[in-house]
From TrEMBL:
This is Rab-GAP TBC domain-containing protein. Residues 7-16 have a biased composition (Low complexity). GO terms for biological process: endoplasmic reticulum to Golgi vesicle-mediated transport. It comes from the Eukaryota. One of its GO terms (molecular function) is GTPase activator activity. Pfam families: RabGAP-TBC. Residues 1-24, 93-117 are annotated as: Disordered. GO terms for cellular component: endoplasmic reticulum membrane. The lineage of its organism: Eukaryota, Fungi, Dikarya, Ascomycota, Pezizomycotina. Signal peptide: none annotated. Residues 70-265 form the Rab-GAP TBC domain. It comes from Sarocladium strictum (Black bundle disease fungus). Keywords: GTPase activation.
Amino acid sequence: MDMEKVALAATSTSTSDEATVPPEETAVVPEDQTLARDPIAQRKIDEIESACDRRDIKGLRRLAESAGGFLSDQVRRRAWPILLGVSTDEAAGLPIDKEGGDEKGRPWQDLPPHKDEDQVDLDVKRSFVYYPQDQSEAQLERNRAELFSLIVQVLRRHPYLGYFQGYHDVCQVFLLVLGLEASTSSVSRLSVLRIRDFMLPTLAASIAQLRLLPDIIRQASPKLWHHLEGVEPFYALSGTLTMFAHNIERYQDIARLFDVLLAREPAFSLYLFAQILIDRQDEILEIEEPDILHVILGKVPANMDLDQLIIDSVSLFNRHPPDKLPAWRSISSASVLKTARDVDHSDEQTMASGRLYFEQQAKEIRWDEMKDRALKALWRYRRPARTMGVTIAVGLVAFYLRRNPAILNHVFALFSR
């Protein structure tokens, strides 16, 4: 059956023998029973609940960084939306994205299809591989239908966003923790305000983020940096694109990691990846073959001490903040790395501003691509005897094109004859 039809059936049917129960109505799971008997854990839960009541982002960040993070999904259902700046109305299930969405009160099913829905369908069919492990195939199919609904709803309400492979891994975690209804507003704000660089028309902004990784490693471990010199940091693409959801196979581990990733600014995922490499330095230094090295660098160890990893990554971030790294200058002012740094005031970020930043960055990417094409055309037709003159001319042309972008069309026409 087509995934869209399954999704429509799943979202329109209120009762079913295999229907998943909304998280708010689930019975207390063994994890929560264990925590309830642990006085130290219960004190921490009370502290998290109090921080949620006050919408105290700094307090939530401190608790997310401490041992165990938010401890349980029941607590995460309150904390995650607050960290993403979801309003009280949105959390209550009222119409989402009032200031930036294209829904205008219409059901998402009635909105025009998004151009990437076929790819969404393919990826969703491959979802829920590692977790949950205690569900029947019928329950997993319903999960997939709800995941498809979640992703397509966000994309249809924000059609300028482009889907990327791995986005379903991120949404899968939100769906399991928050449930379908509560996930929509959180995933919408995450997409537009925290990971929109990955949803641009090209990977240019994503690659620009990766360029920070060698800078972090160089500051923290010159020996490791020297060993990796010349190796493009594309090995970290999967981990950073998906907030490690594609790399981590245990549900409790990825949920715990999301606690801190949502509590910190977007650049923090790069510091987590850098710290993982630093922790594996001895293993990495023994590998000389580039192909093998690339594969090893992209792997995330299965049995990491996440609490220690987070402590070390926070320390690494504090010692070498992103704005002190050389590659920071190349990051667009419209990138989430710069516009979403102040997590403490995430509720002040609007979806409308996120869309404007998206359009600004998309325009910058188009300009860079056009400029590169024009300059390559000029360089290709230079005369060897006038190399120095052409070099100077190319620089002048680049400056002129910046101020007069329309001239690019004439350049392309000239050299295509």
